[in-house]
Amino acid sequence: MDNESKIKILNAAENLFSEKGFEATRVNDISELAKVNKALIYYYFESKKEILDTLFNSLIEDVKVIFFDEETISKIMDIKNIDLYNKSVEIWINKVLDFLISKRKIIKVLLKQALNTVESKPLLFSISDILINQEIKKISEKYDVLKANSKSEFSQIMVTEFFTGFMPMINFVAFYDDWISYYNFSEVDLRNNFVQAFKDTHLAYHEKRLN
Amino acid sequence: MDNESKIKILNAAENLFSEKGFEATRVNDISELAKVNKALIYYYFESKKEILDTLFNSLIEDVKVIFFDEETISKIMDIKNIDLYNKSVEIWINKVLDFLISKRKIIKVLLKQALNTVESKPLLFSISDILINQEIKKISEKYDVLKANSKSEFSQIMVTEFFTGFMPMINFVAFYDDWISYYNFSEVDLRNNFVQAFKDTHLAYHEKRLN
Amino acid sequence: MDNESKIKILNAAENLFSEKGFEATRVNDISELAKVNKALIYYYFESKKEILDTLFNSLIEDVKVIFFDEETISKIMDIKNIDLYNKSVEIWINKVLDFLISKRKIIKVLLKQALNTVESKPLLFSISDILINQEIKKISEKYDVLKANSKSEFSQIMVTEFFTGFMPMINFVAFYDDWISYYNFSEVDLRNNFVQAFKDTHLAYHEKRLN
Amino acid sequence: MDNESKIKILNAAENLFSEKGFEATRVNDISELAKVNKALIYYYFESKKEILDTLFNSLIEDVKVIFFDEETISKIMDIKNIDLYNKSVEIWINKVLDFLISKRKIIKVLLKQALNTVESKPLLFSISDILINQEIKKISEKYDVLKANSKSEFSQIMVTEFFTGFMPMINFVAFYDDWISYYNFSEVDLRNNFVQAFKDTHLAYHEKRLN
DNA sequence: CATGAATGAGTCTTCATTCAT
DNA sequence: GATGAATGAAGACTCATTCAT
Prior knowledge:
DNA-binding, Arc Repressor Mutant, subunit A, mainly alpha, 211 residues, 80% helix, 2 domains, elongated
């Protein structure tokens, strides 16, 4: 079993980074919340930054497991029956939401990090790239929609997927707890409303496109 | 009339806050970028926080001017001719985008701030509230769509507007410069693609709804 | 006039570095001894290391002024009369000792630093190089002693000058205060004894060589 | 009998102390270089300081064995034939150098320690005292040179022996490896040059004095 | 003997803010 | 308005030493 203190540190850091931001989180706060000696943090991690990297790497591993399940997406695309298709999409979207909600703390950190200007492309973008490229690949395989088209069509899909597909989901989980507390939503209502909104906009566009 | 140094300070702070975040921005950095003496910053502002507040207040003023132009929205809603309606919507959306893009730096800061847990509702939410409520009001006035409905319908609209209308726009301008640099988009292409995406999803939903 | 606090910091640091060593000296100790706020040290210097570098650079400047007085050495070498020569040498050596004794604190630090293994050649060696090369040049100009000889003769001179000329002087000033306190020498006696010892050994060798 | 791990610790510590200094050496570094667990160091030694003391004590034991060989010095002094005397001195000096070179790492540490101001007289001085006093005793026994003299003559001898006899040797071994690496000397050349320099200066003075 | 984990007390450095002129 | 200097309170990180097994 991985070390208990290390896990406590990672948990505390994830909570604090997501609540206050990386910069505003004090190593002291982490040690207090985790109830471990401050120096122990430096026994397990080289720096505050390395804690964050560890959390991000862990997220990436999980993303891979969930999203590189090629079969699922392929199967959905194969479905001809419209009702079946809708049901499948719903299952898929709920699976994704379950995952994203469970990881919402670190995803919030990921989003914040993406909003800071850094030399290299932020992780959020890399994850989006992987997901969108995978989707584009599937779409083009099945429906030849990208046949004639080219870079410009590709750009349009990227933009649409990112800003009306990927980011709404990211925003949804990043603001999940805030909506519950500021607008007094129940978890169930919030989620149902979001799924409906997603269907009404992004998925409606997909459906139309595929017909 | 505002002093030249004060403006230099505000500009420098806006740039740095949006690039590195409020916490990671040093008062020193601001004074250096603004090319003013560090102590002078405290002549004009009580604290680093007050610089941020000043920037936010300024944004709010501008938001009011642009968005509380009640007429515009009302007019659009009145239009029966579908082509005219579409044209009007396009004009409206471009006006909004022009504004948001011009304010993208402070909006980025606004978004970051909203991602931190604070006692009071973040400004981003308040702005969203105003906009969405205004829209709901108009919609209900004109079309009675909210007649029978209730809290649940209201909630659904709020969620849809926020996550598929408001936030995509916010994200668009927050990541505007990053998309240009990471994905080598021209400003024009990026914008056209986004407008198209917005039409295909959020506006398509509105259109359908209003029919 | 250079800033008072900066000078106080440099003086305090020089004393502490020479007494306890660079590593064992706390920035806290420096601020307390200098009676300045600890943070002020970082207003004037980037790091503890930079204080040391400043002290070393200052020493080098002084070394240049004192030792690059080419005339003095040349003149001594020109003297044919043995008594006059001896007198001149004595004057020269006293001038050097006056300087070294006045700089004994930072020289002690210089010696300690030279005893640590670093990538680049320690400053003590560089100073020695300059001095010895200068002397060799003079000697060879005047007396052709290096005529036939070669690298091996040159090596011998370097070693002799370093270990029996340069280093005894460095050691003398590095241990100056310790001899006074451990062996209860008066400053005058200690110095006279050292000058005598230097004449009896290193200078006697020079004299013999030049005859 | 000493344990293998203990020896590994002592060796690692000696190397690190001589390279980086006692203060700059981390117990961590020692454990890593020695390839033993850090806590094990505290099984064998009470503190980092005790490792150093152990090394110093070990040096003192060896010094005693080598230098308290009273006979050797006495014998040399007895020799009337000048050639024989010279040969004996050379043998003696080489024996001493062999020893000092083999102990050069800890001697370097000893020298550094002597350069720090401490309450009690540094070990380097104590060793020098023993050696010089021993020599003075021999000299006075054999040649009555100190007959009339007094404290002042004694002081002169002490100073001469320390700064032109003892310290050049200490410096030679302390900088032995540095000269080889910075000035590209071979071990043999460096040593021959030093012996020659020592003969030309300090030993020439002795010879003259004894005539 | 040996070791992975843990810790108290620093240590250097930073930073928002203030002072004095 | 403007500025160089100054400062209290932290902040990240370190390190010798100890504990528990």
